[in-house]
Specification:
Elements (H helix, E strand, L loop, with lengths): L3 H7 E6 L6 E7 L19 E3 L19 E3 L19
Parallel strand pairs: 2-3, 3-4
Antiparallel strand pairs: 1-2
């Protein structure tokens, strides 16, 4: 199960938020951890890069809450649909 301690260990690249008012972590790498439920990540709105490869994720709707997300790696997961929601506009 994904918890705050696991997330804290995987956060890296400290930078400025889009507004420039806060210092925030911009990158999160949680690959190869057998994760299936990662909806808690919707609270990490400042992330720009997210690696969730090699897990068991089947739902990506949580990323609709990440307006600054630029890069997403969800390869090798249990996805059957990718964007049955509105993805961040700058997502690559």
């Amino acid at each position: 199960m994904l918890n705050e301690a696991t997330i804290a260990e995987a956060l890296h690249t400290l930078g400025r938020s889009a507004s420039g008012m806060e210092r925030v972590y911009l990158h999160l790498s949680l690959s190869d951890r057998l994760l299936s439920d990662v909806h808690v990540l919707s609270r990490y709105i400042h992330l720009e890069k997210l690696d969730l490869s090699y897990n068991k994720i089947s739902d990506l709707s949580f990323i609709s809450y990440m307006p600054y997300l630029l890069e997403l790696d969800v390869s090798h997961n249990a996805l059957t649909t990718y964007f049955d929601f509105r993805p961040p506009k700058n997502l690559q």
